Amino acid sequence: MEEFKPEDMMHPPMDQLQGFEYCIDSNPSWGEAIALGFQHYILALGTAVMIPTFLVPLMGGNDGDKVRVVQTLLFVGGINTLLQTLFGTRLPTVIGGSYAFIVPIISIIHDSNLTQITDDHTRFLQTMRAIQGALIISSSIQIILGYSQLWGICSRFFSPLGMVPVVALVGFGLFDRGFPLVGKCVETGVPMLILFIAFSQYMKHMHARHVPILERFALVMSIVVIWIYAYILTASGAYRHRPEITQVHCRVDKSNLISSAPWIKIPYPLQWGAPTFDAGHAFGMMAAALVSLIESTGGYKAAARLASATPPPAYVLSRGIGWQGIGLLLDGLFGTSTGSTVSVENVGLLGITRVGSRRVVQISAGFMIFFSILAVYCVLFGLVAAVGLSFLQFTNMNSMRNLFIAGVSLFLGLSVPEYFEQFTTSAQHGPAHTNAGWFNDFINTIFSSPPTVALIVVVVLDNTLDYKDTAKDRGMPWWVKFRTFKGDSRNEEFYTLPFNLNRFFPPA
């Protein structure tokens, strides 16, 4: 019997993930790229529908208002995705609606000056204008931090160890939108989850014309099969005597989106009227902009690995945050009902399809703009979380210091937001409940975000606990070359601006 050698179990750390047929700057055929882009669009459509479906009725809007908000969110999301992939980080990231803004938006909806409006449509318009004004002001946070390079300077305090809980909790932190949503209609949710895993993993080696058709298009094929299955259940009367909440989640004829949608309606700035501005509303929204910034930072790090690119340098990261601030400004001008951030589910889809091409995501942005008239999250969020854990390979996990920091930051990153969530559910208000509404919104928003809590904890611990003598254990020798644009020769290939714009905006 051959003698066992410990080195046989060693897997050397790798800058880039392997097994991708197309990386950030390589492209499949136009036909395959268009099909993959449409699949990204279908996934983005889920968030674009869910957020307005929750918020618009609370604002007093009807089905027609909900459809227009969905259209606007898709339209602006497509523009923001194009801006980000062309001029921002240039990573294949879809920019979509963000749940980080829900807390301050709910606070605006419950503002006494708005709730006393008796006419529902008037209340909807006035609430939308108040949200627009707060989004416009809060966009300055990301614009300033991005274009001033301040966020890039802050990133100097991030290490590979520090990025583990942040990126991981970008995925793990969304666990409440995974199986809890599946459980609202197990008849279709569980089959969808099983079918998606079967197509993308167990049957991924099935090819058609040398293309792994089931692996590449597992999402859209699963959706088609399950939608037909759900339609048969609805038409056969399977839900006829079930509770109303079950029918809302399971029937295919309850959303009224298609019947309420106009044939042609192009969103435009200030379509709901002139924004209104309130300092208290804006301050709470600024907290959400900070949370979105942190969550997007984790999203960019994950997307870089899933596109087989090097970690984005500080300059590129700041550039992306600056453009994300421009996107938030567009959200406010058009009236999307919420702010924007990197779509975690679309980042996960890069890994499932093993196609990290920038062109595919740009095509999906085209679909979002043109068509601006779910269960798989369990897999996609989990994959992004696993990418975060992959940064552990660059650190020494035999170090008790590193084990302590990683464990505490991951635990508190999940536990603190869960406390805020449970407290809010039982008390109908967040743990911060003072007479200063702006302060309540700020604290409740910051500490309801798992990646934000994790970043606060890990940055403090990683930069104060025996940090002088542990640079190698933290992974800093590997990390330092990716801090600057010219630190690695591959950065120019991945992150250089198009149209020779680097002449006018040279990397800092």
From TrEMBL:
Transmembrane segments: 38-57, 69-87, 93-109, 130-151, 157-175, 182-201, 213-232, 367-391
Pfam family, one: Xan_ur_permease
GO cellular component term of the entry, any: membrane
GO MF, one example: transmembrane transporter activity
Keyword flag Transmembrane: yes
Subcellular location: Membrane
Keywords: Membrane, Transmembrane, Transmembrane helix
Domain of life: Eukaryota
InterPro entries from the UniProt entry: NCS2
Membrane topology annotation: Multi-pass membrane protein
Family: Belongs to the nucleobase:cation symporter-2 (NCS2) (TC 2.A.40) family.
Protein's recorded name: Nucleobase-ascorbate transporter 2
Native species: Acorus calamus
